[in-house]
Amino acid sequence: MPIWVDADACPVVIREILFRAANRRQVQVTLVANQTVPVPPSPFIRFLNVTGGFDVADDTIVERMAAGDLVITADIPLAAQVIEKGGTALNPRGELYSPENIRQRLAMRNFMDQMRSAGVATGGAAPMSQGDRKAFADALDRWLQLST
After folding, report:
1. Contact partners, residue 42, CB within 8 Å, separation at least 6
2. 43-77 confidence digits (pLDDT tens)
3. Residue 116: Cβ within 10 Å count
4. Residues near 11 by Cβ (< 8 Å), separated by ≥ 6?
């Protein structure tokens, strides 16, 4: 099963984990972004450059992915679309989105968006930690074992 990466905001360290996994497991990894993202030469890794615009990369991923594919994204609305289409969505911090938790994640995301719109400082995400990297690598390995 292919892996799709919402690459505009995917941390470099996560992309490197994906590159190693693509070559080791011989699974297709496609990075989708509206800006150039460097990828190493490999028959298993490709980059798809899309035009700029609101949700163009997200829409491209949803359009091209199939049920059973894995999508790496921190974008909760994109994760919801992936799940609706039968795919698996994994956050770069190793959190697996599921039909059971996606509605709660969407509600919290929408609430925080309303708070920011009202001028409330909500802070940003914490920097990626070594634990986040390990959680991602472990979740990716579990998916690869089940899917290939």
Report:
1. 19, 22, 23
2. 999 999 999 888 899 999 999 999 999 999 999 99
3. 11
4. 92, 128
